[in-house]
Amino acid sequence: MGQSNLTVSGLGFFQDRSMDARLSFLNNVESDVAIDLDAAILEDSAFLLLEQMKRKGYLEPTIEGRMLVGETERSVYWQGDYAIQLEVDFVAEAVEFIITPGVLSYYDTVVVDGVHAIEAKQVERFFIPGGVLFSGKKARVFTYENFERRQGRLLRALDDLGYRSAQVVNQQIDIDPVSGAVQVELTIEQGPLYQIGELEIVITRAGSEDEVRKEPAQGVVFTREWEQAERAALRNEAYRAGYPDATVSSEIVADSEEQAGVLLRHLRYRVDYGQAVTLQQVEFDGDAATKRSVLKRQVELKAGEPLDLIAVSEARRQLMGLGIFQEVGLQLEPTSGDARSVVYALSPSQRKELQLRAGWGSYEQARLGFRWEHRSPWGRAHRYEVEVKQSFKSTLGEATYSIPQFLGTDLTTYLNAEYNYREELSFDRRAQGMAVGTSMQLSDTGLRLAVEYGFSQENADRLDLVSFESEEDATVASVTFKASLDRRDDFLAPSSGYSLYASLETAGQWLGGSVNFQKLELGGSYHSSLSESILLHAGLQGGTIFTTGAAEDNIPFNERFFSGGENSVRGYVEGGASPRDSGGDEVGSESYLLLNLELEQRIYSQLSTVFFFDSVLNARDGFFDREREVLSSIGFGLRYQTVVGPLRLEYGHNLNPRDSDSDGALHFSIGFPF
C-alpha cells in the first residue's frame, strides 16, 4: 500500500487525522492509498470539508487546496459559501487541504416569546444546555442544522402538552462575526389547548358494522401519545381475538371551543377486524445450533387456536430473554388466508466473549483480571462465566453456570463457585465455597428477587486471638433471601431516583454447617437535583448479625461488618472505621448503621466537585446494646465522568478520630460510592 496523496492539515494532529479518515470514508477510498485526483474528487472533497466544519459550528471556514501539478504547485481557495473553483479537465498528482476554521459560533442568548405552558428557563434549555456551573462554547455550538432540530423539539414538547397547532411566527438570528456569539429571538404562537370531546368507536367485523360505542373522555388532553395509546388498545383488542390483520383509522368529526384557550376535538375511530385467522404451526428459522426443544418451551402457542398476535409477540420477547440472540424476527406465512404459521427468524449474538478488567482503588491499588463468558455452549441457552481478579491485596476466582428462563419461567437458576483471598488491615480473609440459587427480574417494576443456598469454608488469619475471641475457621451453610429495587436514572452516575435493597441470611447446622447465625442488611440511596447544577446524594444502610448461641462460637470473624474506605467512611482506609480490640486491631462490628451525604456541584459536563459527610454507628457486640461508637468524616473530592463510571479523587477528614486514628485519608477510585 502506498502513501496517500490526499491529506488534511490545519486543525492539529488528532483532528487532522480524524478529518482525513472522515474524508476517505465519505469519498469511499482508502486513507493510505494514492488515488486519481481529478476535478470531481477535489471539488467533492473541498465541499465535504466545508460541510464538516459547518457542522462543528465554524460557519465561515476557508479551505486552501495546495495541489501539485507536474513540477508546479497551484493553490485554490474554497470559502464558506461553496463555489466551483477548478476546470472540468483539471488533474493533480497530490493535494493538501489546509483548513482555516474561522470563528466558532455559539449560542449566547436565546429569547422565546409566546410560550406559557413551559417555564422560560426550561424553554431556554432546548437551545442552551444546563446542569453545569460553567458551559463552554463547545457545549453551546450553534449551527443552522442544530437550531432547526432544537426548535423542532420545542414545538414537539408543546405538541406533547396538547398544543397541537403551536408554530414559529417569527425568528431572528444575529451572529457576531468577531466573537461568534449568537443571539436568537423567537416568537411562537402557542395556540389553543386541545382536549378530547366526544369519542365514537365503530367496529367492523365479518364485513358489517356490528358495534358502535361512544366513550366519554372529557378533560383528557389530546396528544400524540394519547392517540397512539388509543390506537394500540383498539388494535390489541382485535389481535387477542385472533384477527392479526386488524387496522385502525381515525378522523376528526368536529372541533368546538369549550372555553377561552381550550378546543374540544370530537373523534371517530374505525376498527376493521379483517379476517379471522387460526394458528397452523410455529417454525424457527436460523441458528441451527440451538436445540428446538429449548425454543419451543418459550413459546406457549397451540396449533388450531385463534392466532393471538399479542401472545406471538410475547413469545418473541421470551426468546430474546434467553440472552443468546441479537435479534428475533417475526413474520406470518402465508401473509394472507385463514390459517397461517408463525415464523421466528433467529439471529444469534456473539456466543463467546473475553473481557479484560482493570481498575484502581486506594486500598487495593491496581486491579487486573479478565472475564470469560460462553453463551449457549451446548445449544441449550445456558451460559457459563469465569472471572479472575488480582490486586496487591486480594485474589478472586469465580465461576458461574446459569440457566435463564428455567423451565419456561422468568427464573434464572445458577450454580456458583468462588475463591476469595484478601489482606485486611489486621487479618487475612480467605473463603471458598459454592452456591446454588435462582433469581427473577420483574421488568415492569425494576424489582429483583433471589434466593440462594450457599456452602463455604471461611477462614480468618489473625495475630491476636486473646484480646477478642471469635470463630476464625467456620463452615457456613446458609439460605439467603435478597430483594432489590432500582429506580435510578443511571446506575453508573445517578442524578435522580432511588434504590432499595434487603438481604436476610440464615446459617445453621441443620443446613450442613458448623455455625448458627442470622445476618440482616437493609439499605438504599436517594438522588435528586437541588438546582440545575447541584445534586444531592444520600445513602443509608445498616446491618446486624445475631445468634441464639454464644457469639464467639457461632459468628464467623469473616461475617462481621468492617466499615471505612472509599465507599464507606472516607476519612478511613478500607476497614479502618471498625471497632478495635484492646490490642488496637480491627475486629469489626455485629451491628452498624452507615449514613452518606453528598452535594455534587457540576462544573463542566464531565467534571464535578463533591462535598461529603460520612458517619457510621458501630456496635462491636450485639444490637447496639453496649460498646457503641460513632465515627464521622467530612471531605471534598473531584469527579470526572467516564464510560465506566466516575473517576474519583477524594479526601476525607475525621471529625472524631480515636487515639490511634489518622486525621484523614486520600482515596483514588472508579465508580459511584453508593
UniProtKB/TrEMBL annotation:
Matches recorded under Pfam families: Omp85, POTRA
Gene3D superfamilies: membrane protein fhac, membrane protein fhac: a member of the omp85/tpsb transporter family
Domain POTRA span(s) in chain numbering: 109-191, 278-329
Main location: membrane
Domain Bacterial surface antigen (D15): 379-674
Keyword list, A-Z: Membrane, Transmembrane, Transmembrane beta strand
Keyword check for Membrane: yes
Keyword Transmembrane: yes
Source organism superkingdom: Bacteria
PANTHER family, per the entry: SORTING AND ASSEMBLY MACHINERY COMPONENT 50 HOMOLOG, SORTING AND ASSEMBLY MACHINERY SAMM50 PROTEIN FAMILY MEMBER
Name of the protein this chain belongs to: BamA/TamA family outer membrane protein
Organism: Thalassobacterium maritimum
